[in-house]
Amino acid sequence: MTTEQPSTQESAVDAGTVIPGSGVGRTRYAVVGLGSRSRMFTTALLTEYRGRGELVALCDPNETRMNYHNKSFADEYGTQPIPTYRPEEFVSMLAEQRVDVVIVTSMDRTHDHYIVAAMENGCDVISEKPLTTDADKCQRILDTQARTGRKLTVSFNYRYAPRNSAVKELIQSGAIGDVLSVHFEWVLDTKHGADYFRRWHRDKRNSGGLMIHKASHHFDLVNWWLGETPRTVFGFGDLRFYGRDNAESRGEAPRPYRSHGSPDLESDPWAIDLAGEPTLRALYLDAEHEDGYIRDRSVFTDGISIEDDMAVLVKYRSGATLSYHLTAYSPWEGYRVMFNGTKGRLELDVEERSYVSGAAQDPNKPGAGSTDPTNPEQNADEPPATPIDAARLTLRPLWDIPRRVEVEEGSGGHGGGDRRLLNDLLGDAEADPLGRAATHVDGAYAMLVGAAANRSFATGAPVEIADLVAFPGGGGQPR
Is the pTM of this model over 0.85? Predict the structure, then answer.
């Protein structure tokens, strides 16, 4: 630990008494993993939810990165330095800071380590998706949760986007009858999609590949929309566009291994300028000397072990089927999903805004959805954000005319899902007939579809989910 600021109000009243804004009786949170995604949680705890929760510790392998966050917190919110810890100090941090809830936003391959250690030491956990990266780690998490009884929530924010909630409402109402099949296409463009091939995600050991890191969002949506359990998975996946071999096969000239310092930085559309983006510079370029992590590798170099083009078939317990395709090199960003039911068809078309994670124009940054110029969460040098997506939802009943279903345009991160998710996680969770809060079981099934797809890519054979993990006590039904 490098800094510590003891609470001055904790003993003022009983710990169970909550006085909004006073710091008394608040839930004590620690965040592990201080990349760009952590800011959604830290910003919320230091602003809107500070009366209910207290951010008491930060944990990351990079001290420079933690110091940057503390400085930005002080500059923006007037906070005192939050105690910082390195990974090897994680368990002692839980005891020293009397942590109630650990928020895991670290590299995907480390999720299981922090989730298990937190639950074994009496903490509840909120984990960014994916829950973890392979079946063995998933089994370890499930076994630990069953043994400790701790609460483990996975932050599937796309459930909370109004357009996706509208789909759930229509299916749940019986508008298209029993769903028999789903076709789902997700496309990542050459700005956002390419970014996965620059970062640590490019190594499948770190991320589980896009089938787990990215598609777990999508598989969770289908599981939740249908209220179903996936059973059998088959797929094809390969690296067809990014990587050195693919670039050379198209006759493209070799590129430097990274963007920083490249003479073609300004003219190369595949490059990102870390030095020119204040947040990216502080989080990554200025922190390289500690851990050697390079944020801006060329997407056309060696060392990429994840796929960029993936086709997957899933069969559910009910007999319903899913055909899914993910492309990471599209000229546009968004998704199309179609449900075929016994009473009709439902179609959702969404176009999303492209971005580089953590950059100034990342629409998922805290405050990105604000159109109020007085909002302190909105960066003063950025224009007010507009709704980041365009969505069209169409209901096509059998023997009747199609009709357009009006959907609220979600502003803010992930189609308006982030702010609704945060209220469920950190605020007063209300009764929800749609069941959007995702449990460890939901998180497991979402990543297990991706893990099964990865195994199918490797073997050329279908994979049974039941062969990957055993849910303790014979449970395992999603919400």
Answer: yes
